[in-house]
Amino acid sequence: MIYIQNAAIILITFGLMELVAWGLHKYILHTFLWVVHDTHHEIRKGLTEKNDLVAFVFAIPSWLCMMFGIMDGNDFKLYIGIGILLYGICYVIIHDGLIHRRFKIFSDSPKSVYLLGVKLGHLAHHKHDFDEDYNKDNDVVWGMLWVPKEYFDQARRILKKKK
Question: What is the SS3 assignment for the chain?
């Protein structure tokens, strides 16, 4: 029974991290921390960007939860930390790998409706990045793993045409 409880804590934490990331992205990174996030909306000059510092927003609490969870006898904090860690790993794979192609682990066009929908949603967020009159307030789609249904519908149509 304890394994089910621990797995549930990990899964719930992972799911809640999407809400945390959504709020952080929309209400913090696109407002008063734009000075850090702006590099994510520009052409990358090199391997890293200032926005990569945002990873510490997730890494530090994950590490602290796991450390204190282990120190307290592998209690719930450990599993919260693991959930945050798994979301961070997913972020690197999906956001940096699939969407922005910082490393080439996926094909250019995923064959999964879900992965293509997520990619299309995030690309919609960056749609106006290079407009001469770019205004960050016009950006849409703030989540990483959950995007509006219209992008999954668009992905279905694209994949259907390819068959």
Answer: CHHHHHHHHHHHHHHHHHHHHHHHHHHHHCCCCHHHHHHHHCCCCCCCCHHHHHHHHHHHHHHHHHHHHHHCCCCHHHHHHHHHHHHHHHHHHHHHHHHCCCCCCCCCCCCCHHHHHHHHHHHHHCCCCCCCCCCHHHCCCCCCCCCCHHHHHHHHHHHHHHC
For residue 123, CA distances in Å to 3, 4, 37, 129 come to 38, 37, 16, 10
Q: What is the pLDDT of residues 65-102, one digit of tens each?
A: 999 999 999 999 999 999 999 999 999 999 999 998 88
> What CA–CA distance (Å, rounded) separates 11 from 7?
6
Q: Where are the domains of the chain?
A: 2-162
What are 31-46's pLDDT values in tens digits?
999 999 999 998 888 8
Report the half-sphere exposure of 109 (CA within 13 A, side-chain side).
6
